[in-house]
Amino acid sequence: MHKTIVAPSILACDFSRLGVEVERVTAAGADWIHCDVMDGHLVDNISFGPAFVEAVARHTALPLDVHLMIERPDIYVPRFVPVASSISVHVEAHHDVSASLKAIRAAGKLAGLAISPPTPLERVKPFLGEFDILLVMTVNPGFGGQPFLPEMLGKVAEADAWRGEWNFRIEVDGGINAVTAAECVSRGASLLVAGTSVFRATDVAAEIQLLRDAR
Ligand code: DX5
Ligand code: ZN
């Protein structure tokens, strides 16, 4: 079993104080920092690009988990390689999924494959063995602060059953708090992304520990 990794999503921080916010979650015990890149095409929002992720990197030594919610990850993966430790691409985007995953691994990074709520889990099956992380979206991607979709727990459990044969982490992203984290972890998730619950917590360190201990 994998040890739980807690990755606060920087999308939920105060962008006007980016450096301070990154240092705040780093000091509070975050394991990784999750960076949500959105292009306004794959999802209905535009967030930030490589320069912003580089700015995050200047304020922490933690691994950066880059989540590309963009239509052409094949073009942009190389721009994130210098600062990312893991890069996830969506199975719904317009690209050669295998080629993108291979490019991420060839650059020495962990390759993640992300799947949105409406997409059946079968869509990622052909790529088993080609990714290190399966990112199961537990909200419709595009915005922080949305409620967790409990129907996605079935996907987590189903993916967990594939892991006898294949070795990958299951990451959950969207609406994760201490309660929903426990539901995901008990079904096999071990990489927890949390934006609102961490950045809005009165005690960030305690919140991160709660997520890490969720069972
Ligand atoms: C949603 C993003 C998430 C988001 C999570 O499109 O992929 O990473 O920041 O935010 P919360 O935890 O607020 O749902
Ligand atoms: Zn994300």
Descriptive report:
This protein has eight helices and eight strands, in the order βαβαβαβαββαβαβαα. With 215 residues, it is of the alpha/beta class. The chain has a single domain (5-213), classed as Aldolase class I (TIM Barrel), CATH 3.20.20.70. Strands 1-8-7-6-5-4-3-2 form an eight-stranded parallel β-sheet. It is globular and about 40 Å long. It starts with a strand and ends with a helix. Bound molecules: D-xylitol-5-phosphate (DX5) and zinc ion (ZN). Residues 9, 11-12, 34, 36, 67, 139, 141-146, 173-176, 193-197 line the site of D-xylitol-5-phosphate.
Helix content: 25-40%
CATH topology: TIM Barrel
Largest sheet: 8 strands, parallel
Average pLDDT reading: 98
Bound ions, cofactors and other small molecules, one mention each? D-xylitol-5-phosphate, zinc ion
Q: In CATH, what is the class?
A: Alpha Beta
State Rg.
16 Å
User: Structural class, please?
Assistant: alpha/beta
The geometry reads as globular
Q: Please provide the count of β strands.
A: 8
> Strand order, biggest sheet?
1-8-7-6-5-4-3-2
Uncertain segments are none
The number of helices is 8
For CATH, the homologous superfamily is named as: Aldolase class I
